[in-house]
Specification:
about 250 residues; Aminopeptidase; 2 domains; 11 strands; about 35% helix; Putative GCN5-related N-acetyltransferase; GNAT_dom
Length: about 250
């Protein structure tokens, strides 16, 4: 599973508008944002990597005006971390990823006063971005770049799900990346404060997974940011399957 997940991450980065191959690495840059969570690199699994390759990767980030950063499944490049630490990188986080299949999915009920629907228009995409930005503690607004990224994800076969209250107030949402090898990563699950502690996060996650499976995806995967979200994801059918590393310079 580790190898399959890492290959899907590589494939997704290659679909970026500014994808750059740097030796054994693939980097994805986005001119619309300098966020390190959007601009990052990953190694091709099993590739031989040297200190010179790491230096070349740093130079590519510097030329792009972005912070050098990587995300990857640790078992896919077991010697890479020591090379990165020697080049001045610092570990941000070590996290387990979780997977779900059609057989393990356990969809909870959606709160009766909330409607879940795919974002089909740019105003809906802006509402989705604004709601999840607010949920993660950022300004509750959406840029043109946010809208363009969501639209691009959908154009590639990904999913953007918006949760609204019955009166139209945005409640939260989430996304799934463009499927690769019948896998898709679910991310950005966010619920605004007035709608929390009602099971909405789990309902959003489960509905995105259901939509993926209905379109032929075999495995949905994600990462939990803490114990609370971990419990939410386990309840809807996700189980731990491997480890990933986040590291930056």
């Amino acid at each position: 599973m580790d190898l399959r997940i890492q290959r899907s991450v590589v494939s997704n980065l290659r679909t970026r508008p500014q994808a750059v191959e740097v030796g054994p690495f693939v980097a994805g840059f986005d001119a619309g944002t300098d966020s390190p969570f959007v601009n990052y690199a990953t190694p091709q699994p099993g590739a031989a990597i040297t200190a010179a390759d790491v230096r070349a990767l740093i130079e590519a980030f510097e030329q792009a005006g972005r912070k050098p950063r990587l995300e990857y499944v640790t078992s896919s490049s077991p010697g890479l971390e020591s090379l990165l630490l020697a080049a001045g990188f610092t570990v941000e986080a070590r996290q387990e990823y979780l997977i779900c299949t059609p057989q393990t999915l356990n969809a909870p009920p959606v709160p009766s006063d909330v409607i879940l629907a795919e974002a089909r228009t740019d105003p809906d995409r802006a509402d989705l971005a604004a709601a999840t930005n607010e949920a993660f503690g950022a300004p509750a607004e959406a840029s043109d770049g946010d809208v363009a990224r969501i639209r691009r994800t959908q154009d590639g076969g990904g999913i953007a799900l918006l949760a609204r209250a019955a009166d139209g107030e945005r409640a939260g949402g989430g996304q799934a990346m463009t499927p690769q090898d019948r896998l898709s990563e679910i991310g950005g699950i966010g619920v605004r404060e007035p709608f929390r502690r009602r099971g909405l996060g789990g309902a959003i996650t489960a509905e995105i997974a259901r939509l993926l499976f209905a379109r032929g995806v075999e495995i949905a995967w994600l990462e939990a940011g803490g114990e609370d979200s971990w419990r939410v994801y386990e309840r809807v059918g996700f189980a731990p399957a491997g480890r990933r590393l986040y590291i930056s310079r």
